[in-house]
Amino acid sequence: MKNIFFILIIVFFSGCMPKVQSEKMILDATIHKQLTKDSINVFVYGDKGVYFPGNGGLISNTKILDKKQILDAVVKSIQKSAMFGPIENNSKYKLDIFIIKALNIKSSDILTWEISLEMAWNLSKDSKTIWRKTFTSVGKNKTFIGYDRVEGAYNDAVKNNIDKALSQISELNLK
Predict the structure, then answer these.
(1) 70/150 Cα distance (integer angstroms)
(2) So what's the pLDDT on residue 60?
(3) How many domains does the chain divide into?
(4) Pick from 66, 148, 169, 171: CA 20 to 30 A from residue 34's CA?
(5) How far is CA 21 from CA 29, 58, 122, in A?
(6) 174 located within any domain
(7) C-alpha dihedral over 46, 51, 74, 18, to 10 degrees?
(8) Which phi and psi angles does 133 have, rounded to 5°?
(9) Within the chain, where are the H helices?
(10) Could you give the angle at which helices 146-169 and 2-14 cross, rounded to 10 degrees?
(11) Inside any domain, residue 29
(12) How many CB atoms within 10 Å of residue 111?
């Protein structure tokens, strides 16, 4: 009930809901090695990409985790690292990402918002799975403005999840 009240206050004072932003989720450094020059296609799935921060449930018109923004961040992170060749349809490789749940975590500090995000990743080659893993990442943000706190925690959680997945994928031997 407290989470619903908090979100309503955010809407009232800001006029809109927090929403993840792909440019804040793109990995900073190109720490991942090139695996192959073959192309890859990337897809993101999950309950319409709309999650409520209190319980991960679907609520109409409450966009926080946006599948398109997450897709954009993953694609740009892959391109930045040059792990694969171009991102295109009908590729030899396919990366499927499933948003499983996003939950608010109680923080001991009233100005800190923490989000736990669970996403499953599946890399396949010629329609055969070659790597599959589920990651839970935590995003934290400490600011005075509630809107920025929620948005920043989600962006951080998604970025951490992308980093975990791409780090493990970069260790695969795809040649």
Answers:
(1) 16
(2) 37
(3) 1
(4) 66
(5) 18, 19, 23
(6) no
(7) 160
(8) -160, 150
(9) 2-14, 67-81, 146-169
(10) 110
(11) yes
(12) 12
Q: Please report the pLDDT score of residue 103 as a whole number.
A: 76
- Averaged pLDDT score across all residues of the chain: 75
20 near 64, Cβ under 8 Å?
yes
Give the C-alpha separation, 144 to 121, whole Å: 34
Domain annotation covers residue 102 = yes
Q: The tokens of 63 are what? A: 């966009």
Expressed as residue numbers, the domain containing 38 is: 2-169
Question: What tens digit of pLDDT does each residue of 101-120 get?
Answer: 877 776 667 677 788 889 99
CATH of the domain at 56: 3.40.50.10610
* pLDDT > 50? residue 67: yes
The answer as to whether 175 is a domain residue is no
Q: CA-CA distance, 26 to 133, in Å (whole number)?
A: 20
Residue 151, pLDDT > 80, answer no
